[in-house]
Design goal:
alpha/beta; FAD/NAD(P)-binding domain; five-stranded parallel β-sheet; 14 helices; disordered C terminus; flavoprotein; oxidoreductase
Length: 459
């Protein structure tokens, strides 16, 4: 039996937040029914985004609504609060939370008290002070960014097709991606594949007219799949006339000109920034111990070291890898570990409430898979290296098995089958980002300006 009315606060609704709350909901079914436990999930969005499917959503292979999982449907026994945790005072077991209603109420942030804290806010894009990046760059971490980028690429092809200005045409058909990790390589591979297909429907735009540039500061891309497959990926991308620049940095993108550290200059209307992530800012607004990279210092039980009743996993946590041969190694901040850590984390919070021994998180990394476009991919799984169609098929099979809920699995599979039978959809729905524009004009007003970091506004 747990103590009377144990309050569990889960901060974050991503991989770790959702899966931990789901595990707690299952483990504590009886306690929840009797009112002995309450679980509150604070999340900035009412859904969990399955990020490995963002490139396919951007390419039109999957509908955007099937890349996300509605939290209120999945976490029916939890209180889902759409908002942000601004700060946490673990000494008093209190979190300061702002919600969508905070500004309207004008009563200030809410104070949420708890007995057990699960910190899983994830990460945010790690940007650098590159001139023009804040004005013209777009990230690739959210479904809004993925769909906005798809609309933007198709819109640039429309601009190039209709303009008589060769400089404008060249800039519209130049696409710069910064960062050679999963997000950058998969986004570029899928969008280039889509744009190549879409070009057949333009009478004056060909795949050869487009410039796709991948900029990576280190000497290799996709380090997770190994050096050999990383070199293979570079070769495959270059075979598709994608300009891969290794050991190169983006120095500036001011005035819509991408200036690289090797001296190259590319007039462009598209700069996609995928050069890494950093811990969520809320971690710095807590009284919990952090490592030198700003992550929570955790034990192998996924508890925060030296902070009883505080737990963490995923991107926000530095978790020791007990399966590593070298001492001091930590688990990689990826989805494979996050999903598995969440199950152990949910079990350990349950064990702590019931006074039971805690489990140790131990998982040997199985490998990595990456898609490079339709029927193209690389994979390094359990020591085996795959390329091309087999790797692409494994990528889809693996992520289909991991996407949450049977509902989502069935919908994604159905869309893949339909996409295999019929032609791609290449329609840009960029106007969805500005739904009031037409009415504002009809009412005699001026259409509102694009928000600063909107992908379309950055075009």
């Amino acid at each position: 039996m747990v103590k009377e009315r144990a309050r569990i606060l889960v901060v974050g609704g991503g991989y770790v937040g959702m899966y931990t709350a789901l595990r707690l909901q299952r483990n504590l079914k009886g306690e929840l029914r009797r009112g002995e436990v309450e679980i509150t999930v604070v999340t900035p969005d009412p859904y969990m985004t399955y990020q490995p499917f963002l490139p396919e959503a951007a390419a039109g292979s999957i509908s955007p609504r099937h890349v996300v999982v509605p939290l209120r449907r999945v976490l029916g026994q939890c209180d889902v609060v759409v908002g942000e945790a601004e700060s946490i005072d673990h000494a008093t077991r209190t979190a300061t939370v702002t919600t969508l209603a905070t500004g309207e109420e004008k009563t200030g942030a809410r104070r949420v008290t708890y007995d057990e804290l699960v910190l899983a806010p994830g990460s945010v894009s790690r940007t650098l002070p590159v001139p023009g990046l804040a004005d013209h760059g777009v990230g690739f971490k959210t479904v809004e960014e993925a769909i906005g980028l798809r609309n933007h690429v198709l819109e640039q092809m429309d601009i190039a097709s209709s303009t008589r200005d060769p400089a404008l045409r060249d800039a519209a058909l130049t696409f710069v991606f910064v960062g050679g990790g999963y997000a950058g390589v998969e986004a570029l591979g899928e969008l280039e594949d889509m744009a190549r297909y879409a070009a057949r429907y333009y009478h004056n735009v060909t795949p050869e007219d487009m410039k796709w540039i991948l900029v990576e500061a280190s000497g290799r891309i996709l380090p997770e799949v190994g050096e050999d497959l990383g070199r293979y990926t570079v070769t495959e991308l270059r075979r598709r006339n994608i300009d891969v620049r290794l050991d190169t940095r983006l120095e500036s993108c001011a005035d819509r000109v991408a200036v690289l550290s090797d001296g190259s200059r590319f007039p462009t209307r598209t700069v996609v920034w995928t050069a890494g992530v950093k811990p969520h800012p809320v971690l710095a607004a807590t009284d919990l111990p952090l490592d030198d990279r700003g992550r929570l210092t955790c034990t192998a039980h996924l508890s925060v070291d030296g902070a009883p009743h505080a737990w963490a996993a995923g991107d926000a946590a530095a978790v020791p890898d007990v399966t590593a041969s070298e001492p001091g190694r930590e688990c990689a901040p990826n989805a494979q570990h996050a999903v598995r850590q969440a199950k152990v984390l949910g079990d350990n919070v349950t064990h702590a409430l019931r006074g039971e021994p805690l489990d140790t998180y131990a998982h040997t990394y199985a490998g990595s898979v990456a898609s490079l476009g339709f029927h193209k991919g690389v994979a390094h799984v359990y020591g085996r290296k795959l390329k091309g169609y087999p790797a692409w098929f494994m990528h889809r099979a693996y992520h289909l098995s991991r996407v949450p809920t049977v509902n989502r699995k069935a919908r994604v599979l159905a869309e893949w089958v339909i996409a295999g039978l019929f032609k791609r959809e290449i329609v840009s729905l960029g106007s969805l980002e500005h739904p009031r524009a037409e009415f504002e004009l009809a009412a005699g007003g001026k259409p509102s300006q694009d928000p600063p970091n909107n992908p379309k506004g950055s075009s």
